[in-house]
């Protein structure tokens, strides 16, 4: 997940910044049927909004799935409860940033539409857009740190489960489990 997240975060951060720059170019253009920069900004901003929502939704889904996996492994192997508590803590830590990132991008899109169609002062849209970019870039850093913490926790859970399985069933069971996990089951 770490590599995928880095690619998604850099891509989305680039989209956010590009959309902002396109918006600045669009403000210098008079309104009307020939306003090409406004149309480009609108389409690019819609794509950026969907991409931002998608990236943060993927992160949310990752914590939801890995938290459930950790809970199940803790239950089955009777591991300490602090493991499940830490997985929940990681999910809660990331959720605030996921939620507010998605909320801010939605507000930015709404204000952009209002500035374009309802005559709202475009400085509102500009200000919220700048805040949205800054918050999302910070959120990406926090989400990355929490994903790293979750990955370390998952590796520890897997190591403990493998160790217990080997103690119960012998070293052969750990080898079979590793082969099945890697897709190399040759039986």
TrEMBL record:
The chain crosses the membrane at residues 5-28, 40-65, 97-115, 127-155. The keyword Membrane applies. Keywords: Membrane, Transmembrane, Transmembrane helix. This is Uncharacterized protein. The lineage of its organism: Bacteria, Pseudomonadati, Planctomycetota, Planctomycetia, Isosphaerales.
């Amino acid at each position: 997940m770490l590599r995928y997240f880095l690619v998604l975060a850099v891509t989305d951060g680039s989209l956010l910044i590009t959309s902002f720059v396109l918006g600045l170019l669009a403000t210098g253009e008079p309104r009307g049927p020939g306003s090409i920069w406004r149309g480009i900004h609108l389409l690019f901003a819609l794509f950026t909004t969907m991409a931002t929502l998608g990236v943060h939704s993927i992160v949310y889904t990752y914590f939801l799935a890995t938290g459930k996996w950790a809970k199940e492994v803790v239950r089955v192997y009777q591991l300490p409860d602090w493991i499940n508590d830490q997985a929940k803590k990681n999910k809660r830590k990331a959720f605030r940033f996921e939620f507010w990132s998605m909320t801010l991008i939605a507000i930015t899109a709404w204000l952009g539409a209002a500035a374009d169609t309802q005559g709202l002062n475009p400085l509102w849209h500009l200000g919220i857009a700048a805040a949205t970019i800054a918050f999302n870039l910070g959120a990406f850093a926090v989400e990355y740190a929490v994903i790293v913490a979750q990955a370390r926790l998952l590796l520890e859970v897997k190591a403990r489960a493998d160790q217990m399985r080997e103690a119960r069933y012998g070293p052969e069971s750990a080898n079979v489990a590793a082969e099945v996990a890697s897709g190399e089951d040759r039986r």
